[in-house]
Amino acid sequence: MVDKLFASPDAALAGLLFDGMTIMSGGFGLSGNPENLIPAIKANGVKDLTVISNNCGAEGFGLWLLLANGQIRKMISSYVGENKLFEALYLQGKLELELNPQGTLAERIRAGGAGIPAFYTATGVGTVVAEGKPVETFEGRDYIRETWLRADLAIIKAWKADPAGNLLFRKTARNFNPVMATAATHTIAEVEEIVPLGALDPDHIHTPGIYVHRVIQGAHYKKLIEKRTTRPRPEIV
């Protein structure tokens, strides 16, 4: 059994980063982001990146750090709202964007991991999403052809891992992370807890270690709330 544990984000990223590469980064809003690996990529200075992720972080957090540092050339995403820096760079022509319906983005990544180069979906038919894409009719309904997504590197965040790289995710953090783990040449997982080999029930493992090449134990997770809403407490009579 190969021990896949690395001592730090820098050690785990060693030899894998290069200019012009494509990186998949897990997360959904502020949940499930690889919070330790992203700053290490920023510190490395690698540039001209294509990044595949649901969104591009929030001010001061997540992929926003790479965006603010001028390292991202293109984003392939499904949600880009509420990120003023993203908006400004895109409108200034300094950032390329390939916008996807969210389910289509997830399926393109899953297809990349499953070795399926293309598939058809009704989502986006008759809209700008369909521009330039082949359209086929199945059982009287039009579908557009979408292609898989693959990456040189996937950086993901899980709850627990063992030394073989088997992963468990917790709640909403089980979003884009599992499919991204399957769709990259190399996958690095940062986790909240590392447990001994054999401690994870095989029936509970979400991502088998065969998809994971390197593992680090992360630290200082912020557990941020994207939008905090409150209401007044009712008076007790």
TrEMBL record:
Pfam entry (one): CoA_trans
GO molecular function, one term: CoA-transferase activity
Keyword Transferase applies: yes
Top-rank taxon, per record: Bacteria
InterPro entries the UniProt entry points to: 3-oxoacid_CoA-transf_A, CoA_trans_fam_I, NagB/RpiA_transferase-like
Keyword annotations from UniProtKB, A to Z: Transferase
Record bears the keyword Ribosomal protein: no
Protein's UniProt name: Succinyl-CoA--3-ketoacid-CoA transferase
